[in-house]
Write a structure and sequence with these properties.
ABC transporter transmembrane region fold, four-stranded antiparallel β-sheet, 10% strand
Length: 875
Amino acid sequence: GLDLEDGKGSKRLKQCFGVTWFHSHCVFKNGFILKCNGYFKHSATSLIRLCISQSSIVLQVTIFNKFKMHSEDEKKYTADGNSHEISAPRQGHEPEDKHKAKKKKKGEKPKMVSPFTLFRYSSWSDKLLMILGTVLAVAHGSSLPFAMIIFGDMTDSFVASGDTNLTGNISMNFTEDMLNQLEEDMTRYAYYYSGIAAGVLLAAYIQTSFWTLAAGRQIKKIREKFFHAIMRQEIGWFDVNDVGELNTRLLDDVSKINEGIGDKIGLLVQALTTFVTGFIVGLIRGWKLTLVILAVSPVLGLSAALWAKVLSAFTDKEQAAYAKAGAVAEEVLAAIRTVIAFGGQEKEIKRYHKNLEDAKRIGIRKAITANISMGAAFLLIYASYALAFWYGTTLILTDDYTIGKVLTVFFSVLIGAFSIGQTAPSIEAFASARGAAYTIFNIIDNEPQIDSYSETGYKPDNIKGNLEFKNVYFNYPSRPDVEILKGLNLKINSGQTVALVGSSGCGKSTTVQLIQRFYDPKEGLVTIDGQDIRTLNVRYLREVIGVVNQEPVLFATTIAENIRYGREDVTMEDIEKATKEANAYDFIMKLPNKFETVVGERGAQLSGGQKQRIAIARALVRNPKILLLDEATSALDTESESIVQAALDKAREGRTTVVVAHRLSTVRNADLIAVFEGGVVTEQGNHAKLLERKGIYHKLVNMQAIEAEVPSSENYENTRSVKTSESEPEFEESLMKGLRRRSTRRSMKKPGEQDDTPDEENTSPAEELPPASFMKIMKLNKTEWPYFVAGTLCSIINGALQPAFSIIFAEIIGIFNETNKDVLRKQSNLYSLLFLVLGIISFFTFFFQGFTFGKAGEILTMRLRFMAFKAMLRQ
């Protein structure tokens, strides 16, 4: 084997983990990595590509040549000489589908639903709308080729009436008859055009509206079913699926489905119909000319598709680059106090500027590439005109073609070719919709093992509250290799207050979650009144349990509504009673709107103690038989803790109460204290008995006593914050006065958070900034004046190209009145050449116009962003 120190694999490993780590943790033998901290074991001739994710390291190993193996251990990784992927799992696993996605071989097609499965939620009325929309899309797509038939016949009528060879030597009466006939023909053609226009108006409206309406109705069902499916899933499912990703799927992926099954389908059918109809018309009217134009048509179609693809790709890259710069700005502004405190403004300005430079470069490349494609498209169009009229003249002179037939064939085939190029966005949207639907529909179809919406299960008439854990083993789905409970046995009698204590990770909170049946044990039983909780109806079980967690979650609505979430049919009297039991009634009545006070996002308008008491009231309003308190006071300061603890003591009277406690001083009065260690109960008894035993509980009490005497820096900060923060009455007074603390809250907000209290100053119409003048913006762009001059000149030339084209087009039709074939051939060649010249000019002018204005615009955008960010950091 090769010396690993010189190998590419070692270089990647060094880059990833650092040279020091690599040399101190990797063991080598005979050119092989035998071991690197237990994760790696590969050949030295392997190219190792590391892909680091949040919770695992994935190694993709490609063997370039077969060689002699040194051991069986080495063979198992490199036996077949093919590409392998090996994952090194760490704690905190990713969901299985994500893990598999990382292991997908390059080039493997993304998973999609079938085209018909995409419409699985369409009703009969939706199907009818889609069928009618498709029929009208076919009619709409056929309109242009049919209009070209009329255009060709109309052109022949004009040429025939202007033939000087016929009209120069005949009587005036006959000429007048021809003009009258021409007028009748033109009137008839005008009626045809009007009929097609009216039909297109009706067909386009029905096509778009019917497909959009059908898609909207299906998307409504998909959103409802997707959200309902998420709400049905057990907690273990959420452990292995990112909640933020689910929200993104609800917004972005469902929007992709909406875009893919909406009017894009109608546009796709319309474009395909135009393509087919255009070529049919061309072949029927003149198959020879059609075959010649076919040589150019694929290039035209591909250029249109390429232009759309390139523009889309560069737009995505540009948005990603600006998003990266925006993330820097968001990070800096969110922590503006820290940035200013350390004098880091200049450093952050340079970092932001660097990201803007990257975005600008991508934007300029986008302008160059897109406008080359645009110029090439116009060059091909004018070249097609030149080819069509040059070869069309030959057919007119040697065959029975007319100028009208040439125009009909040419425009029908040209329109058909362009329409097939325009299908790319619709096909891409449909493919994206199928890919997005695969995940969405899988989640909808996923049947949870613990279904809170299920009506099955036993519903006892009365629950006493006797709880028992019988030899329970459990591990979380996200960490199947880490066993949390290892044969737990615990009995809790009705009406008892039982405290669960122990070090972090010993299984206390897990025990509480098993009571709520968030999870099912791997082995053993959890019973209520002797009944296995797996046989009980899930919703019924949770309705008889009240829960107060360490971090209370309040929703951005009124206090009354937050409490009403505890029980749907609760009355106002029940709410008031629950708040009195939770020691929350007095402070609520001091608020301006009392129970109708909006608490803000996550209860931002309330203090920690107030939020906790409202959470207690929400738990008590359902009059639960079992009360679960999971470190309900550990996040509070001393003053708030005493108020909340009094409320909890009152709440647990007459109920089976399970308390998970960090501060042992709060559970001294518990009927039973169960001490957890290593996933089992090692000691149980009341406070006095456990102290007498001088076991684990005795050690925990002594440790907390020492910590109380010598406060840590964290405790010091908590103490300091208590002294400097507002007390309960002062906080309530400030809340009533309104906006005193808003500026502080706003400056300390986390990214993405919003101030729930409306700012009258910002929302006032008088505060709206007037639009900046165009000249002021141009002054910021004055250094790019050469680009504007060049772009303006190119724009003028481009503007003149169409009138020039019209003149040449009219002249070339007029030459077909010529009877001399040599003159006709000579003039046809001249005008065909002029079409080609127009194409060459348009290629350069369109490119330079788009490039110059695009570059100037990118520079201005970067300058404005940079100036705005710099001005913010100067405040």
